[in-house]
User: Fold this.
Amino acid sequence: MNSAHRTTFRQLWWAPLLCLGVAWGLGLTPLVHSLEWRTLDWRTAFRVYFQQTPDPRIAVVIYGDETDAASPALQWPPDRSVHGDLLRFIAVGKPKVITFDVIVDATREGEGDAKLANVVGLLARRGVKVVTAAFRNSEPGEPAPGMEGPTRPLQNVVGDLDRLLGDKDAVRPFPLLRAVSRYGFADIPQGSDGVQREIPVVVRIGRDVFPSLALQTLMCYLDVPEEKVRLRLGDALYLETPARTWRLPVDETGRFLLNYRYDRDELGDDFATYSVLQVLVQTNAFYVEKKPFAPKPPPFEDRIVLIGQAVTGKADAGATPRSGLTPLVLVHANFINNVLAGDFARRVPAWAIWAGALMLGYAGLWWLADRSVLVLCGGAVFGVVSYLSVGVWSWVWWSWWFPLTAPLAGFGALQFIVIGNRIVREQRQKQEIKGMFGSYLSPVLVERMAKSGQLPQLGGHEEEITAYFSDIQGFSSFSEKLPPARLVALMNEYLTVCTDIVQDEQGTLDKYIGDAVVAIYGAPITLPDHAFRACVAAERVQLRIGELRAKWRAEGDRWPEVVWNMRARIGLNTGRCVVGNMGSRSRFSYTMMGDDVNLAARMESGAKAWGAYTMCTEATKLACAHHGRDRVVFRPLGRIVVKGRAQPTEIFEIVGLKENVTAQTLEGLGFFRQGLACYQAQDWAGAREFFERSAKLEPHQPGTPGVTGNPSRIYLDIVEHFKADPPGANWDGVYHMKEK
Assistant:
């Protein structure tokens, strides 16, 4: 890891602790707790499309509007003899347990109570267990000594009983009914937002602990007596049967986190649900009246049948995770389904969530804090999406509850700090970069450097670049014929044109030396095609100088003739050089150094000796061709040894850009190459012939303003020299330059 990472980590080491610590604290507040419940409800609603069907051992019978409206005798609340008929008809289907989620407490006048109690007693003798409902109450219930029936409080309870849902007394079924049936408590307390998401498995009445309605139903279905029930608050409730021990996880208050799946919103599979009217009519038609083609009554064999009430305006209903108004009998049904199917909701331990969040927070700070804002934002989005995906799909497939609100709030706050810190740092770096390099880099390069977020390496470091040198031909005559103010104006116009083109091709201005322009291609920002860009820039400068000559000529007497004829020579070389901020501690500049830089300067000064205006080395030509293919047209000028070097260098003239080179020039280049081949073979006569032919087609002809020679004429002179004084049999074709 580099020092930048360590610096950022040292600066923000406190951020994960602060953000996640505050988020953990907020997660304990009622507001965030309520929001977390809501996110769980959303996941529960989404899960409907993926969940399995409910346990087939559970059936629900609803006393709803269609039953209430069918007959005056069936209007809610009906005479208790109607309840007896309903139980009797359901019992025809041979269920194992019938749970009556309706409060039938005080004794009524008439024979209805006795008939209902007689039916329940008869069913008990036939092996059909009936469970009725009670609820807690602060006022004393109806006393009935000796008629408590089979319901008994649980004895094996470990934990603080005062934390259980409870009251002083209870409203129980009327005495005749509770004498022949078990009862359980139907209390389902609402959450802070009115939604039932947890169900108490037991209820405390005084100092006695009784099963809830759903638990009593399970005890009857599994044939578990009270003495085989063990409750450890904060752990679980255990139901011991000969085959196995059923474990129901509970919290310290004896509540069970409901894994609520099935409702009546038609979004997915639901419990097998029937209306009271359907049971009464179909059973009567099939078994009593024995009508032909009568539909068979609902199948209840060996099932748990839960009876609830949902008459509009009188409904025993409430809000659930899937609906704003649901018959509460479905809450009991979902609880029973959770137990029978082993389908429990599981809370991910808080310590695991926050320890994992802290570890990931520090890991992200260690590895990503120094990345670009785009990477940080992408990492933040990835983190949020990943955690949301884990939270959603863990609930969908495995019922693991990952809290979302507080962890994501902490993560978001951490990202805000980290990204904010990165933005501030980038802005500072951009200002440093623009202040440091804005004077000699193109705006494009300055912007690229600023966006990269990385300051160039201070001091010298080695880099492959293309060095660019240009100089005005015969500049001393300009100084003689122009007063200083006019000379400055001319040079400003000329240097502006040259610099704009250099920077437009993403070169870096190194310095001005009088009329000379020195530039770097490939540093401080790496350019893979730096040689190609340097060659294009050189040719564009030559073309623009031609336009300036025409402009100055058109301005008439403002400029002397020497200005009309201005020409520049440019030299290029590609190689590894040392680049960086060099100078004294108090004053430095970004520049380049090395043998290849000196060779580029020799290309500029030596171009005059070869009658060329833009000259480069073989290294530049090859690198340019690699990226620019044949767009730049080169002319080989042979091999030379420049003054101060021992090794020969292949040199080339940049003739122009392909789109600007005429067919006549291309023909002349062909003759020139043939002449050069003859020259290197010491065929002086052949060389002279081809060079004379190419000389006639040269784009720069002596007599043209500012032109004193061209490569063909230079080689004609060299050929004449060697013809008179041959170099010898061992000559290697290398020309040794005597001047810089």
In short: Residues 3-39+347-432 form one domain. The longest helix spans residues 405-437. The mean pLDDT is 89. Residues 109 and 574 are 112 Å apart (CA to CA).
